[in-house]
Amino acid sequence: MTNEQLLTVFIVDDDDDIRSSLSRALSKRGYTVEAFSSARHFLKEYDHNKLGCIILDYGMPDMNGLELQRYMKEHSMILPVIFITGHGGIPESVQAIKQGAVDFLEKPFRQTTLVNCIDTAFSTVLETQQSAQGNKQLEAKLERLTNREKEVAEFIVLHPSSTSSKEVGRHLGISPRTVDHHRARVLEKMNMTSVTELVDQCVKAGLFSSD
Which residue ranges form the domains of the chain, and what is each CATH number? Predict the structure, then answer.
């Protein structure tokens, strides 16, 4: 089973015919599909352990698509949004895209266009998941360091232009030779080959933030 097959396409549309036709068409293409008649129905039934993307009707009553998108963002529900609408305009589409939507499709649209949007959304989900897993692995390696090794690593990451043994040692109150020893141990335990790699990966993962 591929990673894509573990992902789900969620359809939220109050139009029974559109909801059913999209479900059938996407299921035939091999996607796992779950459909809901309203935003509140989706929020009530959604399993947060499931990853995927959401096809969202913009103009639903009670809670419209843009409101649901905003709610999901505020509650860290990581589902890329593909908006569909029968009467949308440029202001609505601009607002949706600004809030992070993958695309804003006006009905009727080609099935291939929707499929391309879904594949783009799935790629985003998988990249985010892989990045999160990589960060966890990096954090686990960081926990192997002694307190002094962490101090050396932190100074190097936060001051990438001041990584000489003399400068690090002066800041931490230890000798350059001791810095060399700790730096070598840090790279060994983190399974890295250079200070540049250490800085790059820690910055990308948001470790040792200066905030």
Answer: 4-134 (3.40.50.2300), 144-205 (1.10.10.10)
Burial group, residue 36, by CB count within 10 angstroms (0-12, 13-18, 19+): buried
How far apart CA 171 and CA 150 sit, in angstroms, is 14
Hey, what amino acid is at 94?
V
39, two tokens: 């935003």
Report pLDDT digits (tens) over 142-167. 999 999 999 999 999 999 888 899 99
Per the DSSP assignment, residues forming a β-bridge with 127 are none
- The C-alpha R_g of the chain, in whole angstroms, comes to 24
Q: Which two tokens stand for residue 97?
A: 């895209």
- Enter the pTM of the model: 0.67
Per-state percent for the chain, helix, strand, coil, to nearest 5: 55, 10, 30
